[in-house]
């Protein structure tokens, strides 16, 4: 929170997303190589919960976070989980802003966000590590663009 006061929310959010893109692209890539059927079921359950909350226009931070956390767990590298958990408060702030915009947005916007998450899951399920990493990076870049474009953050 001190960082937000000293640098401004826009700068902090962009830095957070730079880190998330780097780390979560790798987690998705590794999850596609290493995920067990149980891991995939966990990712899918988190996505179903997220989809239901988004369709009800009551997006759940926890469901979104659990989707990303399940992918980190499926990577087979517990350090990724620890890093995500250490950054949870910061991630929560970004997801909260994104979800408020989605809640206020059109059905088309909700469908786009759901599809981005689904593409990540499908790439992991298919064992396509390149597609999983690219899909995760694309999703996070799009989330950043949705927020920074809305807020007028350069």
Tell me about this structure.
With 154 residues, the chain is mainly α. The chain is 87% helix and 0% strand. The protein contains eight helices and no strands. Helix 2 (9-34) runs parallel beside helix 7, helix 3 (37-55) runs antiparallel to helix 7 and helix 7 (107-126) runs antiparallel to helix 8. The longest helix has 26 residues, at 9-34. The two termini are 21 Å apart. The model is unreliable at 1-6 (pLDDT under 50).
Low-confidence stretches: 1-6
> Helix/strand/pairing class, anyone?
mainly alpha
Helix content: over 70%
Radius of gyration over C-alpha positions, nearest whole angstrom: 15 Å
Mean pLDDT across the residues is 87
Strand content: under 5%
Question: What is the number of helices?
Answer: 8
Shape: globular
- Kindly state the number of beta strands: 0
Main sheet properties: none
In whole angstroms, the N-to-C terminal distance is 21 Å
Order of helices and strands: HHHHHHHH
Write a concise keyword list for the protein shown above:
single chain, mainly alpha, disordered N terminus, 87% helix, 8 helices, 154 residues, globular
Write the layout of secondary structure elements.
Layout: H1 2-7, H2 9-34, H3 37-55, H4 61-74, H5 78-86, H6 88-104, H7 107-126, H8 129-151
Short characterization:
By secondary structure, this protein is mainly α. The chain is 87% helix and 0% strand. The protein has helices at residues 2-7, 9-34, 37-55, 61-74, 78-86, 88-104, 107-126, 129-151.
């Amino acid at each position: 929170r001190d960082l937000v006061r000293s640098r401004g929310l826009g700068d902090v959010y962009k830095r957070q997303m730079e880190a998330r893109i780097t780390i979560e692209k790798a987690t998705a890539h590794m999850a596609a190589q290493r995920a067990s059927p149980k891991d995939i079921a966990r990712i899918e359950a988190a996505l179903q919960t997220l989809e239901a909350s988004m369709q009800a226009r009551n997006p759940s931070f926890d469901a979104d976070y659990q989707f990303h956390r399940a992918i980190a767990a499926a990577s087979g590298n517990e350090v990724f989980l620890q890093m995500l958990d250490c950054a949870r408060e910061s991630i929560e702030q970004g997801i909260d802003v994104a979800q408020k915009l989605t809640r206020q947005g059109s059905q088309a916007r909700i469908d786009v966000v759901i599809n981005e998450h689904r593409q990540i899951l499908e790439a992991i399920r298919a064992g396509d590590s390149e597609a999983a990493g690219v899909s995760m990076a694309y999703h996070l870049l799009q989330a950043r663009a949705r927020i920074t474009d809305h807020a007028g953050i350069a």
